[in-house]
Amino acid sequence: MIGLTALTVDHRHDPVGVGARPRFGWQVTGAGPGTTQQGWRISVADGSGAVVWATSADDDTCVDIAYGGSPLESLRRYSWRVDVRTSDGETTGSGTFVTGVVDGQWHGTQWVGAPHPSAAAPIVRGVFDVDEPVLEAYAVVAAGGLAVVELDGEPLDGSVLGPGFTDYDIVSQYTVTDVTSRLTPGRHVLSAELGRGFYGMRGRNTWNWERAPWHDDPCVRLLVAVRTERGMQVIGSDESWRVTDGPTRSDDLYAGEDFDARLVVAGSADAAFDDTGWSRVRIAAGPRGVPEPQRQPPIVVAERLDPTEVTQLSPGRWVVAFERVIAGWVEVEADGGGGETIELRFGETLQADGAPNCVDEKGYFDGRFQTDRVTLADGPVHWHPRFTWHGFRYVEVRAARLPRLRAAVVHTEAPRTGRFSSSEPLLDTVHELTVRTILNNLHGIPTDTPKYEKNGWTGDGMVGARMMLQNLDTHALLAKWSDDIAQSRHGRGAPQVIAPHGGWSMDWSPAPTWHAALLLVPWEIHMQTGDTEVLRSIWPDARDYLRFELDRCPGGIATTTLGDWVAPDTDAGGGNPPEDSRIAATAFLVAMCDTAARIAGTLGEDAEEWQAAASVSRAAFVDAFWDDGAAEVRGQGDDGYRQAHAVLALAYDLLPPAARARAAARLAEDVVERDHHLWTGALATPHLLPVLTRHGHGEVALAVALQTTYPGWGYWVTQGATSLWEHWKPESRSRGHYFLGTLDDWLYGDVAGLRPLSPGWRRALVSPGLLDTSLQSADAAVRTPYGMLSARWRRDEDGVVELTCEVPVGVTAEVELGTGRVGVGAGTHRFRHQVE
Questions:
Q1: 170 phi and psi, to 5 degrees?
Q2: In whole angstroms, what is the distance from residue 504 CA to residue 165 CA?
Q3: End-to-end CA distance of the chain
Q4: What are the pLDDT digits (tens) for 48-64?
Q5: In whole angstroms, what is the distance from residue 298 CA to residue 414 CA?
Q6: Beta-bridge partner residues of 537
Q7: Which of 345, 144, 334, 355 is nearest to 257 (CA)?
Q8: Tens digit of pLDDT for each residue in 436-462?
């Protein structure tokens, strides 16, 4: 029966805290074969049921329909309804949303914090009365740093490590929580423990977060809007609130936390608690950025793991092991005498002496690293960090007696949206390790290792964007991060190589290979989700940056400080390979120009400027680097044949059409000569297997994917990897990095054969590319804005391939088996093909 599902506002179900111009979407389900949507009508109503806006159209649009009515009121619940007409009948759906502070009015609430600098995390507290039954109530939390907020002693919501991290001089995020059911008439207590995060970091670190332009001690701004029959009551943080140092004696994202259970303030959640001994709060300046509701999903505790093994190293020293490398913390249950300490040291690997590696090998930080300390009070203590997370599989415990530990897996809430499986267990294993590792690096932004950096390196997120979007619900996170990249320009020059950026003094410019994220990530979001607003948001910065980059690339050849990072013949700590990095730089310059032309066209602007620039660079690239006789892309200082050069030239269409097949054949020849091993780093690896497959070398590509000796994904698996590594080498610094896991793009796009042909998968290609190889089957699905698109194929002993694809309403698929293409609409479709 026909119906609607996935009714969303700003890509969330019944969200609390949206902006002034929310966007609506839905999916049609239960439809018969070939069903199409023919029209729709949306209406939005206020709390009294009065319609405040309605619109309709006779088309099949069902994604990102923007509100266009009169200004919405702040912190109010609205309902919305959509009526849809299809060729298979009519259906309807409804939902709700709550606005954020869309009128900019904070009703006198102020930024507050501790009156004097202290390493301890302050606790601020306010008491208020509710006089009559509540119709609506919403709590708003903004923070300079991190805030753990409680209402009457219970957490405000299930999130952790929030609100979200931004360039606090440009944007300051806040969260909104519905507390209607919790505010009964009577007295209530609102409190917040404040952590430093990236806002108030004290310890020296190589990225200079301790000297960021916004740097200050942590602060918070809290507002509760309560509506009753008599009107609105506003409760907020102000000079009357009280503050004291809490039991968290220090917190640092890299060093860890110190907690003293003897200093827990008992009874402070009780409205009758006497806080006259506490200090008055300091009225803080707070972040200077524009307040915005947090766009990305919250960070949450997604899973808990019990230990798999405990080893005693010596009296008072144990190593507790868990099943895999994770990002998060351990929950401690201990019972001892007051003043006893427990020290926890976290590592992804073990050192020669059996202890976890919690060493800062590169000297990035002053003092300790990945270490928590807990001082016990008399009696039971239950504790976990509130203001940091670690990358680890192993925990060394130093204590008088072994406490009970349980690991908490902590990352941005990002449900699985895609799936992949095949007849090759190794491919399935690598796929699962890839998704795990991505999740380990989602903490409001896509991070570079949960252990070492926690930074949003732009090139890393750029190469990982597709697999993030095809596996997980990361649309809002990556759209927000795209704005972070644009904002890192501060209106001039190139974007920074990490975003958000806090004034890191190290100059990586020029680095078009990493700066390209400013265009390529939003375009990937657009292709996967159909989101045009993300393009409109970044376009002024992207356009101006690209002009800046072209101006410093005379003749169309670019240079870069960052090449095909962590190729196999680089140092295990990272670095550029022994090859001409101008080739990668120019390839990404062309990719940016091509993408700019597409963005301009999408936004209704003239694309000629970017097309012309791409043509100049393509011609210059061929003149400078293409050896037609040898069918090779060569640069100055290359150490022999370099796979990355050919891969990038073919991936970004830099070579004349007549040269491409020969270049691909030479690439395949080198792979075979290396006994079917890759020799690429982070930039070229995403394209190696697709380039080979799409130029007729699918069996070579499959052999690389299934390789179990160094270097390759299978080598990691044979070495016992439970996540992806930062380098191909076993000496890799981190065991929690996703940017070499881009085999996953090939699994979806070539092995299963699912690729978008137009934004949002409106037109999709279903074209498995390995039907004539030793692979016997594959099954994959991606969540498009219109529903799940899937492809499943199997080849029998006689070489007959059976392909089944399921197409949602709103998507048209072109199915390619053999030499022809067949167009299909919504429904389940089956095909047979004889492999020659």
A1: -110, -45
A2: 16
A3: 41
A4: 999 999 999 999 999 99
A5: 9
A6: none
A7: 345
A8: 999 999 999 999 999 999 999 999 999
